[in-house]
Amino acid sequence: MRAGIVLLTRDGVAAIERVRDGMTYHVLPGGQVEDGESAAEAARREAFEELGVLVKIRGLVAVVHFGLRTQQYFLAEQIGGEFGTGDGPELGSSAESERGSYRAVWLPVSELVERELKPKPIAATLTGAPDPEWLLDGWLESPVVFEEV
C-alpha cells in the first residue's frame, strides 16, 4: 500500500517533481507503508523525508485504486520543518539514473492538470473546485474513492 499527503497552502499544493526517462511529471508526496506502520504514520514520515516538513495528519481524504494497488491520501497541515530540505534516499538521484530525479515543489492549484500531477483524479477534482480547501474539508467527512486507469 502507498500512503501520501495533500498539503495545500497559499503557495499551492506540495508535490514532488519527477524527471525520469526524459519525462517530467509530478506526484503527491508519499511512499510505501512499512511493516508495523499505519498508513497515516507512513504519510507523515514520507512528508518529512521528501519535503523536509513535519505535518499533522488531519484525516483521510481519498483512496485511489490503481490496478491492484491501493493508495491512501491524507489531508496534512505543516507544523514544522523547512520545505525543500527533505533528505530521503531517493532525493540524491539524478534524472539520468534508473530512479530518476526527485525535487520538492509547490504547484498552483490552477496548474495541477497541465503539470500532470498524479494521481490524476485528485488533481482534476482540486483544479475544478471553486474552493479546494472547502472541498478537502468535505472529503474529511467522507473520503472519496477514485479508480485510476
Q: How is this structure best described in words?
A:
The chain is α/β, with parallel strands linked by helices. It has one domain: Nucleoside Triphosphate Pyrophosphohydrolase (Alpha-Beta Complex), CATH 3.90.79.10. It is built from three helices and nine strands. It has helices at 39-51, 120-128, 132-141; strands spanning 2-9, 12-20, 23-27, 30-32, 53-66, 69-81, 101-107, 117-118, 144-148. Strands 1, 2, 3, 4, 5, 6, 7, 8 and 9 form a nine-stranded mixed β-sheet that branches. It is globular and about 40 Å long. The model has no long low-confidence stretch (mean pLDDT 94).
CATH superfamily: Nucleoside Triphosphate Pyrophosphohydrolase
CATH structural class:
Alpha Beta
Write down the secondary-structure element order: EEEEHEEEEHHE
- The share of residues in helices is 10-25%
Number of domains in the coordinates? Answer: 1
Approximate strand percentage: 35-45%
Q: What is the CATH topology classification name?
A: Nucleoside Triphosphate Pyrophosphohydrolase
**Number of DSSP strand runs:** 9
Major sheet: 9 strands, mixed
Backbone shape: globular
Low-confidence stretches: none
Query: Helical element count?
Result: 3
What is the straight-line distance between the termini?
A: 17 Å
Report the C-alpha radius of gyration, rounded: 14 Å
Name of the CATH architecture: Alpha-Beta Complex
Structural class: alpha/beta
